[in-house]
Design brief:
By secondary structure, the protein is α+β, with helices and mostly antiparallel strands. It contains 2 helices and 8 strands. A hairpin with a 5-residue loop joins strand 1 and strand 2.
Length: about 170
């Protein structure tokens, strides 16, 4: 779990670090988990993030920044000895390309390369609903298809959005 009062920031060197949350961010929480290995399939790393902003504009700025960071840093360093390479991103506002589950969304796709040089598919799915931004990252493992990982991330993001809708009482 992340430290209270902080949020993840991509620095000038394209490294992810935690910094004090800026004004307008009411709270941000990251949880880290593993989908355990099963037979011929390796364990999948999953990160879930929820950030509450004081305004929809602030939440929207977070999505804009997420979309732009891939242009600035197509290779990112989430932790020592690991890289995310070949990143591409796609933003989809409500109503475009049949996206009807959030006010706005961003999908990033690339390869997660560990310290041993092994590359696995990587997905970062972000969605905004009102003043809340939720996100799920999924890092693949041996035996998992990109389609499985996409579905795993989409299911987790969908569950998070349902909970946000219930808490905010939005339809």
């Amino acid at each position: 779990m992340s430290r209270p009062g902080t949020w993840a920031v991509l620095d000038d060197g394209c490294r992810w670090e935690r910094e004090k949350a800026p004004r307008g961010v009411l709270a941000s929480l990251s949880r880290y988990s593993l989908l355990p290995a099963d037979g011929s399939k390796g364990s999948v790393r999953v990160t879930a993030v929820a950030t509450a902003h004081s305004s929809a504009l602030g939440a929207d700025e977070q999505l804009s920044t997420t979309l732009e960071e891939v242009l600035r840093c197509p290779e990112q360093h989430p932790r020592a000895g690991a890289r995310i390479t070949g990143l591409n991103s796609l933003g989809t506002p409500f109503g475009a390309r049949e996206q009807e589950y959030a006010d706005d969304s961003v999908l990033e796709a690339g390869q997660y390369v560990d310290k041993d040089g092994a590359a696995q598919p990587y997905r970062w799915m972000v969605a905004r609903l009102g003043t809340v931004v939720v996100a799920v990252s999924v890092t693949g493992a041996k035996g998992h298809t990109e389609q499985e990982l996409q579905q795993l991330g989409a299911d987790a993001l969908g569950q998070m959005l349902v909970r946000v809708q219930q808490r905010l009482k939005v339809k």
